[in-house]
Amino acid sequence: MPWGPTATWCTRWPTWPPRGSKERSELIDGTPLDRAILFRILCDCAIVPHAVEGEEPLNLGRKTKVWNTAQRRAITVRDGGRCRFPGCHRSHCDIHHLHWWSKGGTTDVRGGILGCDRHHTLLHSGFRAEGDADHEVTFLRPDGTVIGTTAPAGRSPVLAAM
C-alpha cells in the first residue's frame, strides 16, 4: 500500500503561518485555529496554498463547462466553503456558472459561485444571480425582486505554488 498524506490542507495565503510567523491561523470558514493544533495537522498532510493577490490563472474560457480541481479549490477558498445565497450557510455545494455555459458563459473562477443543492436548483428554476463572483453577487427572484447581495468570504483567490 502506498503511503501519502492523510489529508489535504487548503489555506488562504495571508493566514498561512510559516514557522516563526505570528499571523493568525483559521479554517476556511474563518474559525480561528490554535497554532499547536495547526502544526499537528500539518505534520501529515498535503498543503495547497491559495494566494489572495495577483492575477487569476484559473481561466478555462469555453474549452469546457466542467470545473477542474484547482478551480474548485480556489472558488471554495474565496467563498469560505459556504453557499453564496443570502442567509445560507450550507457547506455541501456545487459550483454555479453565473453566466450559464449553455448560453455562452465561460468556466472561469470569476464566473462561478458555490451553491448548495437547494439554491443551485433555484438558480436553474427562474431565480437569478448576477455580478462578479470575486466581488458582489446579487440574487433575484423570478419576478426580478432582489433577495440580497453577497460578497466573498475572502478576497479573490489565485492558486499559488510554494
Describe this structure in words.
This protein starts with 7 loop residues before the first strand and ends with a strand. It has 162 residues and is α+β, with helices and mostly antiparallel strands. The strands form three sheets. Strands 1-2-8 form a three-stranded mixed beta sheet, with helices on one face. The protein has a three-stranded antiparallel beta sheet with strand order 5-6-7, with no helix packed on it. A two-stranded antiparallel ribbon has the order 3-4. Strand 1, helix 1 and strand 2 (46-51) form a beta-alpha-beta unit. It has a domain at 69-154. The protein has three helices and eight strands; from the N terminus they run βαβαββαββββ. The chain is globular and about 50 Å long.
What is the gist of this entry?
With 162 residues, the protein is α+β, with helices and mostly antiparallel strands. It has helices at residues 35-42, 69-78, 117-123; strands spanning 8-12, 46-51, 93-97, 112-116, 128-131, 137-140, 146-150, 158-159.
